[in-house]
Amino acid sequence: MFLQSLRDRWHEAFEPIGNLVQIAREPYRFLDDLRRRGGELAELRMAGMPPVLVCSEPETVRQILTGSYDQFERHAGGVELFVDPLALILTDDDHHRQRRKLLNPAFNAESVRAFGPTMLEIADRVLDGLPLGITFPLIGPMQDITMRVILRCLFGVAEGPRFEELRALVIEYLQLVFGPDMVALGAVLTPTRAHAALTRLSRRARAAAPNAPFTPSRLPVQRIADRLGRIHALLEAEIDRCLAEGPETRSDVLALMLRARFADGQPMSREELLAQLLMLVIGGYETTSLSLCWAVHCLVRHPEALARVRAEVAQVMQGGFDPARVRDLHYLGAAIAESMRLYPIGIGVSRRLRKPMRLLGRDLSAGTVIMLSVYLIQRHPSLWSEPDAFKPERMLDRKPSAAVHFPFGGGVWRCLGAAFAEHEMRIVLARLFTRFVVEADPEHKIHAQQKGITAGPSGGLPVRVAPIS
């Protein structure tokens, strides 16, 4: 009895830490094991987070994913550590609905197509610099493309010294904020309070003039806060520049946001504007670059699919590459969708129950957090034939419902920038595969690794490239 009690206490104390380590090392394998052990509504405990029920039962996932504000609220699962409480991703009810409506025009099909030439220019420039004949991690160039696209298309930042400083600062901030210092602070204070502390510590750097020299602290948390403050200072300078030039003269997302008005005619406050801009960076940087890597991983291992992609690009773009026509690259779009089915960069989306519910034979109280497993649903054997196989054709035959294929999340909280990311990915992959032969590193066995809030290929996807003669 004593030994059993001791084992139970040991398990209760260290299981959350062990789960955190395992999910970081191999998140997909961890989820497969969790379902085998706990079924389709399995409890998951991780250090620094409340217990979560991981759901992979298709009908229950559909019920929750399509639920309304009065049934569920968004549970960010630790994202509160990285973004401001005003960010769209953390809001609910009418507050969320109003802001979603306000921001939607900046990411509709017409707005996204207008960014195509800039996306193409940046992609080609970065691809021009790929190292030839040596093995290198593809994640680096993909991150470079996505960050430059964000700064140019979303923020309207002109290339130059400020552009390069902001690019470097955002990358450094994201690396540090996903690091052990902030994770530990979040575990001690809760993610929301940790971010509030970071914001308070960032005020000194934010108050400095944007053209003043910047020397960040070396202290563990202060060095993150200083970068956050400097980013805010530079973005505020860009807001001032946009207002001085006239938002109506520009087509970047920042200008569209400055022109937008709520139903009462009021604009978004500057603090909220900054919160949404940083949310878009975090939501679009790692996610898009990692999704690009997973798509490359799938295509280079399936030569017949890659040959079909190249043939389609050659046919559609025979008069010259037109970024507006990437919407006609249907097979490439299917290959991207299929790679995101197999390798979703977000392993789950979470909801918190607002009222008691009975799910899968269990009575759950209000406040229970349920994570809908994107990975497990998108490989569920009852939903997909050959669920572990890469078959882009399945995405051409019939578009899957949003309840079984939701790599961008679903319901009222579906990713705001999904169309933007898909358009960018089509451009980048079309240019990469029509300009280069890409080979996987045979010495490196790829598996998923958790990077902050996303799951990417191990080693950053080592590849070798050579120009197509």
Automatic annotation (TrEMBL):
A GO MF term: oxidoreductase activity, acting on paired donors, with incorporation or reduction of molecular oxygen
Residue positions binding heme: 415
Domain of life (superkingdom): Bacteria
Keyword vocabulary terms for this entry: Heme, Iron, Metal-binding
Family, similarity comment: Belongs to the cytochrome P450 family.
Cofactor: heme
Transmembrane segments: none
Keyword Transferase: no
Pfam families named in the record: p450
Protein name as annotated: Cytochrome P450
